[in-house]
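Supplementary material to the annual report.
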Amino acid sequence: MASSQFQPIQGMSDIAAPDSFLWQMIEERARDIFTRYCFSEVRTPILEKTELFIHSLGDTTDVVTKEMYTLEDRGGRKLTLRPEGTASAIRYVAAGGDKTASARIYYMGPMFRCERPQAGRKRQFHQIGVEAIGAPNPLADAEVIALQLHLLAAWGLADAKIRLNTIGLPEDRAAVLNGLREAIRPRLHELPEEAQQRFETNVLRLLDSKDEAVQKIIGAAPPVTEFMCAETRAYLDTVVETLRNLDIDVEVDTSLVRGLDYYVHTVWEVVHGGLGAQNALAGGGRYCIQIGKNAVNGVGFAMGVERVIAALEAGGISAVQFAPPPPVFIVSLGEAALKENLLLLQMLRKHGVACEMELSARKVQAQMRRANKTGARQVIIRGDSELEKGIFVLKNMGDGTQSEVDLPELMKLLT
RNA sequence: GUGGGUGUAGCUCAGCUGGUUAGAGCGUCAGAUUGUGAUUCUGAAUGUCGCGGGUUCGAAUCCCGUCACUCACCCCA
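Predicted assembly:
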């Protein structure tokens, strides 16, 4: 058992080989897909002014009120480790004025939320996200959703399901809350106490409650879209229609709710079976964020990398499948060969060959054992007699055969 | 923040209702084989039994606290 002094802090973890091979695959394929859709990367600071998140996410949201890592710097400024990526991206866009008014950007990196860890929920977790800036346009929403599904397919997660809804315009809000309350009120007494409180504080949250009693009553209530204006409904219809034309079949799920205040119109979630309670791989939506005097409109999504990995692993994918090809190993017999082999090692590397060698003149047996452990398919053995003849022994670890070759032939065989 | 489960060697775990020096498998290292790995055989090393306190003649085992891991609620990606 590792002593606690060597462990990372609660809810955070080291990501090392072989897992890091899988992380690299995920990031590489994401970059490839983003490039095809003409999105470019933005790397924003991980630490931001606390007020950025309060203003953009909403000062009453759970993320802001109880999940942020906030600290004061030496000047007494309040800073927060970013709990999500959109706020920083939008801050960047707002600073750029016209130049970034139609930016298409993506980001990837760590996010921080101080919650109780569980399956699919770390305190430091990683997101890959995109933001397509621009005035509301249902075609843009559809394009971003298509991009997201393309990316999921590239990762091998074509079986992920998308739940789509609209939370409408700010003007719809009052009608939705009222309509929902009126629909539920007659049966309010049937709800558990906690749900009754939420009826007052945040009715929308009842929509995605896991409580059976709540679900029964919600199921009988009219869908939220019925309380929304014609414009909102037309917007949603166009998104769905556009997706259908792109051969993407989505079901509208009117019980989908989002926890951040900046969303307007389209919102969605990507869920995957076999993930446990935290079954959302990704969340996304259209937003309007006020930064200073500017309102920035856009549509985007964020994918939880840890959850993507969990979904892949549930499907039998393992990180070792993405390990780099095995290296060539060099065995030296005697000090003279050790010195020469160091030169050979660097030369091979400069020619693009991944190779490794034992840096001491240990016994052959020990060196061969290590060569075997590194997974080397080929081993170069060189001692005094090879040095004298100017040749190399090249051993194939698969079948145990070996041959003597000169330098040009060695290079031909290895590169 | 609330609740459940779990902490014994590098890893996976065993250790019966408290009883002598805490075990196994895998892994690691070495030898058999002084210039050849993986296989085989032989041998070796490694533990503050998560940590702290209590009960007891005696605690890995029982009690309390604490920390960590884990799952769920909540929330979200």
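Residues 181 and 199 of chain A are 7 Å apart (CA to CA).
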